[in-house]
Amino acid sequence: MKKLFILLSVLLVLGSACNKDFLNVDEKNPNAASSVPANLVLPAALNSFTAFYDQPDNYSFVYLWYGMWCIQNGYVQPSNLTGYNFLNTSYQNNWYYSYMVLQNLDYVEQASTAKKACNFRAISMIMKALVYQNLVDSYGNVPYSEALRSSEGILKPKYDDQKAIYENLVVKLDTAMKLIENAPVDADAVGASDIIYQGDMASWEKFANTIKLRILVNQSGMAGRATYITTNLATTATVGYIGAGEGAAANPGYSKSTNKMNPFYENFYKQDGSLQADALGYFGAGQDACNFLITNNDPRRLRFYSLPSSPATGANIKGNVFGALALITVPETSKLGPGILGAYNTPAPILTDFESLFLQAEAVQRGLLTTGDAKALYESAVTRSVIYMGGTAADATTYLAQVGNQKTTWDAVPDAGKIELIITQKWCALNGISPMPIWTDYRRTGFPKGDIPTSISCVIHWTADPYRKSDAPPVRLLYPQTEISTNGDNVTLQGTISLTDSKIFWQNR
């Protein structure tokens, strides 16, 4: 009997919130059945991914390095991050919990081979593709073909080539979409087991196709990949992509109880609404993002950040530059705002409609998609971000109509600068929402840049950490110490890993 690994969602929440039992599946009962039905495992697996991915501490380096957040005055700045020096112990739980989530999703897939269970199988395949994509984008080569085969005696899985994994993920997503399309009329209903789309399989198909779009667009800067990308996009063009109001977000029934609230919100607030220890006193606004929001008259600025309690000059948002040696005081620093923090029952974002629309705009602008209007998609993306953050469509219209503003207005930007416009606005919109695309976009495009002196270029501020290892941040995570200890031979086969030179295969800069 294949051993079942059920990961409790609590274990996936790192940092201060580490005792969650929400959507627990208990396999310790000696009287329990020897196998657990997929409809019971699926919600726990989906919630486990959400609790991990939406925990801000797990990807804090992205928000800190890319100008969005700072660590406020009075706290010791993490020297490995200010010095652009990842260690093998840095963020190593990202690896561990990713594979635990994959084990749970794989159980659902293997338990759903019957034709009537095709929708359960499709959802698990789609989510596995998303987790593996994040692993490749973080580490490059990773265990894939042998990764989930411990029941077969493979305890030290080999590492697969990152490009080959990416290509196989496209195949897996196509297969999942076909399972949905060819589902029999009497297919088992997913229903409440699906905490993301509540069993709406048409939405799952669009979600799968949007992940596929992201995987292919990530390769758009590589020489010789255009035909591969356009051919694969064409095969599922009729499926469509996540559109306005169709974003993927999880809500297993968040309630105002300890360990049962939105994971991002609960990182900062207790069930009674009071602050967690440190909480909003630790992370604060990044000055570079503040500059961008203020300079461009952004209607989201007081949703991304709050006003300082004691502004030094004027009454506007203000932050610090991560890695700077001189920091303004805590009363002068803006906190993370209500649009980022949400509420205890806010659905946890997995892939927002505005990220999808930005992806589509980029694909059209690059000529990878033959249908669609890049301007309309871009403006829809910005509009959906403004609405998500608590603004209105009218606010977005005003914002997008600023005459001559090359950071907001499509028609003010020459064709050669439109990709930069899309990526820069995407960077702004994903602040506190989805960190991995921000990191990936910078590594593959170099945007944002120019008059947005992001913290990765904090030498511009002349107060950067003098001990940093390089003028640019690492291009990847290091293989974790836990993996070196348990699968060291296969780690060694990957060769010497350099934080600055061992680039993910799609990075062409």
Structure characterization notes:
The protein has helices at residues 38-53, 60-65, 79-82, 92-110, 118-139, 162-181, 201-217, 226-235, 263-266, 287-295, 301-304, 338-341, 353-365, 374-388, 393-400, 418-429, 435-445, 481-492; strands at 69-71, 142-143, 159-160, 248-250, 283-285, 348-351. By secondary structure, the protein is mainly α. The strands form three sheets. Strands 1-5 form a two-stranded antiparallel ribbon. Helix 1 (38-53) runs antiparallel to helix 4. It is globular, with a radius of gyration of 22 Å. The protein starts with 37 loop residues before the first helix and ends in a 17-residue tail after the last helix.
* Topology pattern, helix = H, strand = E: HHEHHHEEHHHEHEHHHEHHHHHH
Largest sheet: 2 strands, antiparallel
Question: Into which percentage range does the β-strand content fall?
Answer: under 5%
As residue ranges, the low-confidence spans are 1-33, 456-462
Distance between the termini: 48 Å
Determine the number of helices (DSSP H or I, runs of at least 4 residues): 18
Strand elements, count = 6
Q: Helix amount, in percent?
A: 40-55%
Strand order of the largest sheet: 1-5
Give me the Rg, rounded.
22 Å
Q: Which terms would index this structure?
A:
mainly alpha, 509 residues, 6 strands, 18 helices, 40% helix
